[in-house]
């Protein structure tokens, strides 16, 4: 159907518009984004009616964004005189909002192209320009050809193969939607058994908890304080002993905050939490995390149509262990997305930073939940935008892979983590459970760039490769050994995610670690497997135990493997360190990679280097854990006592 409301009628009849006047401009234009390959699952369905009107959004280049890493280092590196001097949200918005020149250049370009000023909307943060265009106008403006595409599953998408911008405009624009981006089709969240569906949990995310094989029921964990069975089942007592994380004395719980993010339809079950608490932390029986509902999410089982490990495993595991380890500190639960549409990392970021919300910051209807949800039974309220101040520490055990979205989308999201780091937030992500391969053990086909079961190129995870988050890999104690023996990389059931980015460059804090790894332990691979230039981000940063954790799920104690376990455990320790700092009047640690990440010499002895194990995938044995940083276990596992002592010394 033609929508003519905002468009002069003559355009709809194909009469040449004033856009012809801009042809000179277009001749001097440069290609801004182009798809190298067409995703296999999509095909051109039909050409579009030239009069069809669509909303178009232009993501403006943020001012000073190239300096983000430097700004972040200034408040996060222990050698910096401004260590710990985190920014206010206002300063962040002011610093990065597009320059006057950017806004001016883009709006002039649109005006000269015949798009009257009344049709152009500028977001409050000035990050986005939005307007409705006919397909004809868009094709002329962007020197593009638009099609309706159809996915094998029936999903439809409007897009083009490439688009161009005038040379003087191009430096002011990050991204225009809809154009070339459409890698991950949205799915409905009814059947988590299918791979596509499971990934769509966060519009393309896999969660990282795996149930141990059948029969590996935990023994009931009858003696919660015993360390004798730590090689067969990990309890909170084992974690405390392993990482010298004795019951910390927390004195600033009112001032402190710690959040765990879960994506609907994953949800916790209170009776399982209570079952776990009865064994391991009796004082918590009956307590729940503090719910922050994002985009219509409901609390725990209230939102659930179904139960089972796939729906409850991740949430129960994260909350049972974190709440026990960090009590009496309250744990906040960011539950994201309704049960109909689900949600993405961007939806969570919208909720904790208003400057990032849809129109102002870059949600994509292809990847992200768009609220209000127009689907039957969906959440009809407004999108959750800036509804809560971000917690000091935020832990997430979900992820997808770099190839599932576009670099522009990922860079824009990654910069947001950097901004939150500037404000003093520590963001932790698990590194994934499939070694150097992608979710479900697919890898990248070097010819098409697609994820295939017979792909041979390593398939790095996202947001794990974003240099502004802290990524936690997994280790395990070798069967038959005790906690007093060195751990090795987790290779019994899952393989710690690790490797090198194809999108993000090498952050300065990681330079010597990555350079030294590639020089001292050159992997027997070529650029066919991974970007071995030594100029890209490597992950994970650190690691923690990721195997055989005792978890109560659906009324039973089971053993769970996965880097899922590692992120909330590490996050609990950072939360206890924040408590100690707050108690003596200092600030939370914020972005920890430059300091604690222990990429600094000061912190190097606060981690137990893991030097055995590897992370196979893509028909290879992956990388080897070795002395120093490695793309399997990062810098190693934490020694809480030492970390805390060091962080108390820092200003
Ligand atoms: C539990 O284990 C601890 C440490 O091994 C031991 O001291 C205690 O007696 C045990 N308690 C029971 C009830 O077995
Ligand atoms: C890690 O988990 C495994 C599984 O129990 C356990 O045997 C080991 O003691 C734990 N230690 C470490 C390092 O994780
Ligand atoms: C991998 O699988 C795809 C799709 O099944 C096929 O087209 C391709 O030839 C295979 N590649 C190799 C190297 O076997
Ligand atoms: C890992 O170590 C083994 C044994 O030393 C070696 O053969 C292999 O090439 C190493 N792999 C990598 C990726 O470095
Ligand atoms: C590897 O990364 C570097 C730095 O980002 C880049 O210049 C280079 O093109 C990449 N190599 C490949 C093969 O993609």
TrEMBL record:
Bound cofactor: record note: Binds 1 Ca(2+) ion per subunit.
One of the GO BP terms on file: proteolysis
InterPro entries per record: Peptidase_S8/S53_dom_sf, S53_propep, Sedolisin_dom, Tripeptidyl-peptidase_I
Top-rank EC class of the record's enzyme: hydrolase
Keywords: Calcium, Glycoprotein, Hydrolase, Metal-binding, Protease, Secreted, Serine protease, Signal, Virulence, Zymogen
TM spans (from-to): none
UniProt superkingdom: Eukaryota
Chief place of localization: secreted
Catalytic reaction list: Release of an N-terminal tripeptide from a polypeptide
Gene Ontology CC, one term: extracellular region
Signal peptide residue numbers: 1-20
Molecular functions (GO terms): metal ion binding; serine-type endopeptidase activity; tripeptidyl-peptidase activity
Documented EC number(s): 3.4.14.10
Required cofactor(s): Ca(2+)
Binding site residues for Ca(2+): 609-610, 628, 630
Subcellular location: Secreted, Extracellular space
Domain Peptidase S53, residue spans: 233-650
Keyword match Transport: no
Active site positions: 314, 318, 564
Pfam family, one: Pro-kuma_activ
Protein function: Secreted tripeptidyl-peptidase which degrades proteins at acidic pHs and is involved in virulence.
Protein name as catalogued: tripeptidyl-peptidase II
